[in-house]
Amino acid sequence: MHPFTYRDGVLCAESASLETIAQAVGTPCYVYSRAALTAAFQAYTSAFSDTPTLVCYAAKANSNLALLNLFARLGSGFDIVSGGELARVLAASGAPEQVVFSGVGKAAAEMRFALEHDILCFNVESASELERLNQVAGEVKKVAPVSFRVNPDVDAGTHPYISTGLKESKFGVPHRDARALYRRARQLPHVRIVGIDCHIGSQINELAPYVDALDRILELVVQLAADGIALEHIDLGGGLGIRYRDEEPPALSEYAQAIRNRMAGRSERLLLEPGRSLVGNGGLLLTRVEYLKHGETKHFVVVDAAMNDLLRPALYNAYHQVLTVREHQAATPEVYDVVGPVCESGDFLALDRTLAVAEGDLLAIMSAGAYGMSMSSNYNTRPRAAEVLADGTEWYVIRDREQVPDLFAREHLLP
Ligand SMILES: *Cc1c(COP(=O)(O)O)cnc(C)c1O
Q1: Are residues 309 and 396 both part of a single domain?
Q2: 172 with 165: CB under 8 angstroms?
Q3: Any idea which residues carry the catalytic annotation?
Q4: What are the residues whose beta carbons fall under 8 Å from the beta carbon of 353, sequence distance 6 or more?
Q5: CA distances for 139 relative to 134, 167, 185, angstroms
Q6: Which residues, judged by CB distance below 6 Å to any ligand atom, belong to the binding site of ligand 1?
Q7: Mean pLDDT, residues 215-219
Q8: Do 314 and 231 belong together in one domain?
Q9: 4-15: per-residue pLDDT in tens?
Q10: Mind listing the pLDDT tens digit for each residue in 33-79?
Q11: Does residue 240 sit in the same domain as residue 115?
Q12: Overall domain count for the chain
């Protein structure tokens, strides 16, 4: 599956030329491939076809309504982290009965909203949240379905890249407290225990931490059963890595096999919450070269996209491959930093890349489908980018470029 390939020397999204898209829509612009998104989703459903499984796309990775709607049509559920994301899922015709609600800081109003729509499950992250949820549910005369997000505390020495499943993390409840919390939940009149969940981190490229986490969770499931608490689902969260550069994330078939081996003979439904692995490699950021700038020790390509459009390089020092939209360039290759117009020295998209470019050329920042647009901001009063979905020979604008007046429409001069 190669959604972005050169045809007649021009990089295309499916069959649409990125030059055509840039001319029509302008830059910077995110471009996604419907076929790539669909294939990524179907890879999950086919890997888990013989296990009762619900894939809940983690909306925060990319919450454009068209993408949510595409996944909803494919049968996806959703993992949300705010009332706003629930509103998006509903606007995109997502099924609320397939929504799980994660996050450490759910407000009472968000709980009410989710209860009104009868979501599948609240992934509860603290004792206080459980008490509040019970109270709010009572007020609206509902019974809240709950799961506890358990922190499996898989070994940090073995798996140092895991950022959210450790004791020190703000996420989840400690493994040793979980049993007591379930007993407490059982006593509350307005909650109903339905599951258990964990989410151990992101961009995980090994199976071992998943296997360790699932084993820790299953230990608890057995203890809960001894307490007479039966669960309807086990939710393993998301986090599976993708290839940005030379990473080798496990194949979905291996990931599924490892999980299935441990779930064999169990009656609980499996829930998964993938984000990055569904959308990351299905999108790119299209940008135009404004200037070539030759400093004393470095050469710079100054482009019209910046850290406000794609924060990952500045925030995590993340690597994104950079391609020229024209495959063969007349310009002499040089080693460049690709930087944006924002007034921060951390505003870069790529460092030390050999590129043959001229002013006015188009560049594609690859693997930008996840945590790209959804983390974008208006820093420096920069309107947020347009978004386009390519679909065979067709392509659709799925978000109009923001306009400058939009950015201060809710501000007020002093009287
Ligand atoms: C962010 C998040 C996900 C998705 O993580 P990916 O690394 O994008 O797969 C899933 N579940 C929870 C609770 C999250 O916070």
Answers
A1: yes
A2: yes
A3: 343
A4: 322, 335, 336, 337, 338
A5: 9, 34, 17
A6: 58, 60-61, 79, 102, 199, 202, 237-240, 273-277, 370
A7: 96
A8: no
A9: 999 999 999 999
A10: 999 999 999 999 999 999 999 999 999 999 999 999 999 999 999 99
A11: yes
A12: 2
